[in-house]
Structures are given as structure tokens and as C-alpha cells.
Amino acid sequence: MEKEQRRSESVAEVMARAGTMTRRGFVKVVTFGGGAVLAAGPAALRLRDAGAQDQVTIKQWYHQYGEDGTQEAAMRYAEQFTAANPTIKVEVTWVPGNYGDTLNAALLTDDGPDVYETQLNYALVKAGQVIALDDLYTADVKADFHPNTIAENSVNGSIYGIKMIIDTGLLYYRKSLLSEKGINPPTTMDEVIAAAKALDTGRQKGLFLGNDGGIAALLTIAPWSAGSDFVDVNTNKIIFNNDRTVLAYQKVKELNDSGALLVGAPTDWWDPSAFNQGLAAMQWTGLWAMPGITKGIGDDFGVVPWPALDAQGKPATFWGGWSQMVNGKTKYVAESKKLASWLWIENTDIQKDWALSYGFHVPPRQSVAAAAEPLKSGAPAEAVTALNEYGRITPPQWTGTMGTILTTAVTNIVKNGADAATEVANAAQQCQAELDKVVA
Q1: CA distances (Å), 55 to each of 38, 52, 79, 88, 394, in order?
Q2: CA distance 407 to 34
Q3: Closest C-alpha to 25, from 113, 99, 120, 109
Q4: Rounded to an integer, what distance in angstroms lies between the CA atom of residue 227 and that of residue 309?
Q5: Per-position b or e across 330-343, b if 16+ CB within 10 A of its CB
Q6: Residue 423: alpha-carbon gap to chain centroid
């Protein structure tokens, strides 16, 4: 697999080669360059290669990506870094299963990774499990990252991570099916509901948002599309308790009550199989699914961000992905920073390779994304435009516990018919109590 050959491939060829992605693949027991694959705990594989005895060894962790070739690429990058920096050896750990729990446990010890990937949260900063990387962000470098990327990796004015890849969500629709019904791509929530009903033939449902009816997929996106948000990072206040959030969740219930949603699909919203197999005429899923959709149905699809709630709202999508962190407990701060910077700031070839040679993502440096041929035209270009214009983040102050609280409330609204205003107010109160503990 030659890098120069990849650069000359067309968008369609890149997509066809990438194939359908799963968010988590199976564990592969492999060897690299004669190095053994050794156990690194109950849920991790530690990949070692021979190195000079006088080298400093830094440990780098990745979660298990689903795309074929990513594990090999991570090892190759480590070898290339050591070739350029002979006194620093990189020991790569590929972590299958529940990466979050495995990482959190390791970070509590003195033998955790020196460099690791995650999404920044306030607790990591508070516990000293990340260190500030502000010195790596010169003015030119910082300007080349979208403000969302800076914000999602910042706490109290310091930047603690370097974005590695960006993922985002899109509403995919079958062009031919909408054309047959005389339906334009929806631009509001009411138009989504109307289109889903019109496209529902019984055997083929109008829309697939996940087997929970879109509760997880639209948990944050529905309020964003209404013009609401979740946390004011300047005041550390929960701000989603308002009429617009209530209306957004009421519309999610109306969509579920329409009977036009696909539920009980073999896979969930993150996988394009239901869309490709004609089980639904529209589906909310990720940019990562575009190669699989192209392989499955050719160019008979279009994409838009999640439509605005109404005339007072605006389209929305999530600004997701992974960032590189340096452990606050590392003994090798300078070496760890050097690796993180070399990979995700300095080495643009690696950034393009990581984002586009295995799956389908957006390189975080805006100059790198702009130069990436597979993202310059067609649906990929439309996806990047939607991301840059409408992508939203939940800040590091927003925790998984808050997400669980809000999910419970929205489930009560959508599935149990609970009063939306009451559920939103109660969830906001509980989330504020959680936020107070987080930032205390």
C-alpha cells in the first residue's frame, strides 16, 4: 500500500477501498517486523519492537479503530518517529474493548501511557492526568485549527490536546426515492417528519435514527438545531432548561409517534447497512459511513446536516473525533510532547494518511483538509462544509454522567409520554449539581 499511489486515487476509489466501517473491529493478533505481540493487561495488546538499550521509551495508547490497516499504520508512524528521533523509542498499545474504562484505570497508576488519545474532560485536568500543550501551538499553528477544535481541548484558557481526526454526522437520503415522491431534502424538523411519513412504504421506512428512535443520536443535536446549548463555560452554568430545548424534544417524540421510523434494524445508526439494504429511505449516520454507502448504492445519495428545528433555529451536527494527550504523570514530558507534535502538528502526510487512507474522516488542520483530494468535491465536500458551518461541541465540562441524566429524561419524554418541560427542568437541576462537583 503505497502512500504516493493513494494520493493519486479518485474520491470513488478511496471510498470503494475503505469499504463499510464498523466502530469497533475484532482483536487481531499480529506481529510487526519480528516483534512479538505481548499482553498488556486484560483488555490491551502491547506491541513491542527491538530497540537500543540507551533509548528513552515512551508508551502510546490507541483505542481499537475498526478500519483495516489502522493498527499497522500506528506502528509504522512510531517506527518513522524513532527513525527521525533515535533516542526516543515508542511502544504502541492497541486497546480493544472498553477503551475508556481501561484508560481511566491505567491513568490512576504510575505505569499508565505517556501519550494517549481520548476526548478531553474537566476531570482529566483536575486530576493532573493531562498537561498543557500551549507551547506547541504557535500563532500560525493555532490559526490552522478550527475554533471548535481549540475549544474542545481547552480548559481555563490552556490547551491540553491535539486533534487527530474529526468525525461528524450527516442525514443521508436516497436521491431517487425523494425525487419519485417530489420531496426536497428537508430543511426543518417538520419537513423531516413529513418526508419520513411520505417515504414510509411499510416495508421500507422513511427514516432510521437508531434502534432507540434517535434518542442517542439527537440528544444534543435536537437542542442545537433549536438554537439551544448545554453549558456556559464562562460561568459553569447549565443552560439547556428553556422552551427551545423542550420544543426540540417534543418534536423528537412527534417523529417517533409518526410510525415512520425504522426500529429493530440489525445494526445501529452508526452503520449504513439499513440504508444500503433499502430498509429506510433516509438515515442519520457518520461521515465514516460514506465509503460503505458509495460502495453499496453508488452516487444515489445526498447529504445534509441535521435540519433546523424551525425558522428560529439552524442546522446542526456534531464535531467529534479523537485528540492526543500527554499524561501529567509522565517522566518524559519533552519526549512525549515531541511525539504528539511530530504526529499531529508537523507531519501533514501522516495526518492525511490517518484520516483518509483507512476510513473516512476530516484531517483537523484546516490547511491539510483543504488540500485533501477526496474531500474537494461531491458529497465529501458538502460534508466538510456542513461540519465547518454547523459543527457543534460539548465542552470538557460536560460529563458522561450528565449525558446519562439527560438521556433518561429524553427517554421518559419520547417513550413514556412524560411532560417535556418537567423532565428538562429536572435534568438541568441534576446536571448542575454534577457540574458543581466537577468544577469544585
Answers
A1: 20, 6, 13, 5, 40
A2: 47
A3: 99
A4: 8
A5: bebeebbbbbbbbb
A6: 27
> At a CB cut-off of 8 Å and minimum separation 6, what does 108 contact?
none
State pLDDT tens for residues 235-274.
999 999 999 999 999 999 999 999 999 999 999 999 999 9
Rg (CA), the chain: 22
Distance between CA atoms of 296 and 273, rounded to whole angstroms?
9
Q: Which amino acid is at 46?
A: R
Strand pairing class (169-173; 302-304): antiparallel
Name the residue type at position 265: A
What cell numbers appear for 230 in the block?
Answer: 448545554
Quote the DSSP letter at residue 36.
P
Alpha-carbon torsion (310, 217, 149, 79), positive or negative: negative
**pTM as predicted:** 0.88
Q: Give the three-class secondary structure for 24.
A: coil
CA distances 390 to 227, 316, 385, Å, are: 11, 5, 8
Name the pLDDT band for 53 (thresholds 50, 70, 90): low
Q: Give the burial class of 204: count Cβ atoms within 10 A of its Cβ; 0-12 exposed, 13-18 middle, 19 or more buried.
A: middle
What's the gap between Cα 74 and its chain centre? 19
128-153 pLDDT per residue, tens: 999 999 999 999 999 999 999 999 99
Q: How far apart are CA 348 and CA 367, in angstroms?
A: 9
DSSP string, 44-92: -EEE-----TTSEEEEEEEE--SSTTHHHHHHHHHHHHHHHSTTEEEEE
> What nine digits make up the cell of 136?
506547541
Q: Answer for the pair 90, 338: CB distance below 8 angstroms, yes or no.
A: no
pLDDT digits (tens, 9 = 90+) for 336-349: 999 999 999 999 99
What one-character DSSP code corresponds to residue 342? I
